[in-house]
TrEMBL record:
<dbReference type="GO" id="GO:0030313">
    <property type="term" value="C:cell envelope"/>
</dbReference>
<feature type="signal peptide">
    <location>
        <begin position="1"/>
        <end position="28"/>
    </location>
</feature>
<feature type="domain" description="Periplasmic binding protein">
    <location>
        <begin position="50"/>
        <end position="326"/>
    </location>
</feature>
<dbReference type="GO" id="GO:0030246">
    <property type="term" value="F:carbohydrate binding"/>
</dbReference>
<dbReference type="InterPro" id="IPR028082">
    <property type="entry name" value="Peripla_BP_I"/>
</dbReference>
<protein>
    <submittedName>
        <fullName>Fructose transport system substrate-binding protein</fullName>
    </submittedName>
</protein>
<dbReference type="Pfam" id="PF13407">
    <property type="entry name" value="Peripla_BP_4"/>
</dbReference>
<comment type="similarity">
    <text>Belongs to the bacterial solute-binding protein 2 family.</text>
</comment>
<dbReference type="InterPro" id="IPR025997">
    <property type="entry name" value="SBP_2_dom"/>
</dbReference>
<keyword id="KW-0732">Signal</keyword>
Amino acid sequence: MRHSTLHNRSVRRTLAIALAGSTALALGACNRSSSSDTAGSGGKAAVGVSLITKDSTNPFFVAMQKGAKADAAKNNVKLTVASGKQEGDDQGQITAIENSVARGDKGILITPMSTGVNAAIEKARKAGLFVIALDTPPDPASTVDITFATNNRNAGKLDGQWAAMQMDGKPAVIALLDLFNDKIVSVDYNRDQGFLEGMGIPVNDPKKNGDEAKTGKYTGGKGGDYTIVCNEAGQGAEDGGRSAMEKCLAKNPNINLVYTINEPTAVGADKALKAAGKTALIVSVDGGCAGVGSVKSGVIGATAQQYPLKMATLGMEAIAKIARGGEKPKTTPGLDFFDTGVALVTDKKVTGVDSITSDEGSKICWGN
């Protein structure tokens, strides 16, 4: 009976996510219809907007760029797409921000690299541009006008809660594969710290990775002993994930639980484990189409799915609306950003943690 109840709840959650996306698109369609009709009759010119992602190779940002281009045409937006050369390229994003201001754009959609781009964002806002963050809330949140993002803390907690149940009281020997070790990024510490909280491992500074006790008791699931072997930066890439995992295994070859900042990192970690003849439970975040495939194949045990196309759609509609005199969007009650939703994708369902299957996740990956 409990299994049936959880299954029904999962299905309802999936339908709710799809309905939320449909509602947002429907509302946006109303706004787009008004703007496009006016523009088509010569009443209003196209609005200049820049989308600035962290890079243009990560499937997450590729999907976001694709969605933004489609929404730009619908909203009569003249879109310029730019990015850093790779994760960590603050200067690449700063240059793109400065170019947007010089071009006379009305707004910027950005997945901020780190606090290193805050000053450039603030200059753009002083110049009159409306700036919306996507995916990565800046620190502090007030750096931008609003953020459309996953609740990354909750995403990490879902991973941790699921992992604690899977450990079933056994000692957890943990590797934490983060994004950076030299930059402060909210998505980085929120996912990492959320995972630990989900495991029932006390954290110290909630905005700092690696300062928690390295040994102790986890209280999630049946509870048990834990050892944190490492916090290594994988730069959000497969190669980085592999080298980070290799460093962790060199410290302790008995790692049996791996948290990863995203799915490319998880794939790299899996390759390092296989090369060393080891196995471990891997959890991650993104829920992209390839990542869901990795869940189905068993490479990743569970991943928290987010919806970049929805972020791009809502951001594009908001800037187009504001540029034409409309109201500014509001944050989700109780949060300092607009929550675009999250769902845990796994084919190993556990009691007490809502989830959807890889088959269900594949139907809505990236927010399709």
